[in-house]
Amino acid sequence: MTLLTSAPAPGGDADHDGDDAGDALTLGRRVREQRALRGMTLEQLAAAVDRAPSQLSAIENGKREPRLPLLRALAAALGVTVDELLLDEAPSERAALEIAVERAQRGTVFGSLGIQPIRVSKATSDDTLKAILGLHQEVERLHRERAATPEEARRANTELRAEMRVAGNYYPDLERAAQQLLDSVGYTGGPVSQRHTAGVAEKLGFSLHYVSDMPHSTRSVIDRRNGRIYLSSNLPSRDARAPILRALASLVCGHEEPRNYADFLRQRVEANYLAGAVLLPEAAAVDLLVESKKQRQISMEDLRDAFGVSYEMAAHRFTNLATERLGLQVHFMKAHESGTLIKAYENDGVRFPSDALGNFEGAMVCRNWTARTVFGQSDRFNPWYQYTDMSAGGTYWCTSRVEKAKEGLYSVSVGVRFDDVKWFRGRETPHRSRSFCPDDRCCRQASSELTTKWAAAAWPEAATPTSLLAALPTGTFPGVDANEVYAFLEQNERRA
């Protein structure tokens, strides 16, 4: 866990309401301190400045800041100057502690906890205030640590992709874990059945429960206390295998609470990998691929059909095995119909679009790449094959398919360098394109004729994605509504 090199000032909530709130608290404590030194009651001071005691109480508690005329009246009644009341330092150590706790309780981090603030009074001991302040500062530190900025998240993602590239996207420990799970349920070959999947869950001590009220922000929920895995009753039966295995991966891989966004990303990659390694077992998948390579007929469709999985899982699993077991360097893309790159992996030198940090996800794919041209094809039954001549890096061949999800259409593509296309079905395709991206003249810049005609007349309003300006989701598991999940578990535990 990354430790901060410096801590905020006592009670210095990074997201408190601003210096005005701090000034009001300090001013209020100075007024109270001066009143107490003179032995005046709140009522006596209120009478001296012709105000209600409740108004002065709000000022002393830092909930209201007096206007200048009232401030002058208070200074006169207390026998001090206005400047003395406006000093920005607390009048005593005790007052400083009270101010720090009050400021913390008014901050948004404390407010997000849903805890009722305590009333700080003379009877509240220093130790109690220090304990509250210490706990708040720790919660605030964890909040900052987990609230990854977009830059931090992209950096973590880029580092993980680099690690995957070096490893050839192949992880022997996860392959062994998957084989052990299959051995435990007596798997001998062919597609991994629902019975096998349920057997894996049972061996790990979990029962499966399909419900209609799954928390909207989740794909599955594990109840470790009662040994249950909850899945949506609307999930297609064949596709239920992957969510079950991804859920169980947290147990098999020994995942603990993510310490940061990098941990979260790594755990997600491991869960997806393990699910693929179980549903497309290494030995059987490699046998099929080696034979296909001998016949120069490697095909994602054959891998998909042989193991009864989605095209995307077959394509992704192929990247796990291609380099380590077939000696092929490859790339993988998942792109939305808008052109946005959703997932990407490469170790064959292809130059994906990226940001300044080298992050692929979220970048726009060239319109001339297979991942984009496939959307223009009317034949969605057969795969789309295409060669693309790159301005830098030579020629690449890709096979691509369009699939549908709740977010719309997306393409899944697998490709290799021209020298390796001899091993793949579809190499005879006549389809060919050229890409000069990132040069804007490739596919982003309109012709000079259209630019001359419309540049001064067009004023489009961008359909800004809601996530563009939003902070990344926070929490132990980013994007998951913990309150909803806990309420769901509580309700289902009572039903049992």
UniProtKB/TrEMBL annotation:
Keywords: DNA-binding. Gene3D superfamilies: lambda repressor-like DNA-binding domains. One of its GO terms (molecular function) is DNA binding. GO terms for cellular component: cytosol. It holds the Pfam family Peptidase_M78. Residues 31-85 form the HTH cro/C1-type domain. Residues 1-23 are annotated as: Disordered. InterPro entries: Cro/C1-type_HTH, IrrE_HExxH, Lambda_DNA-bd_dom_sf, TransReg_Diox_bact_type. CDD domains: HTH_XRE. Belongs to the short-chain fatty acyl-CoA assimilation regulator (ScfR) family. PANTHER family: HTH-TYPE TRANSCRIPTIONAL REGULATOR, METHYLPHOSPHONATE SYNTHASE. This is Putative transcriptional regulator. It comes from Leucobacter luti. The lineage of its organism: Bacteria, Bacillati, Actinomycetota, Actinomycetes, Micrococcales.
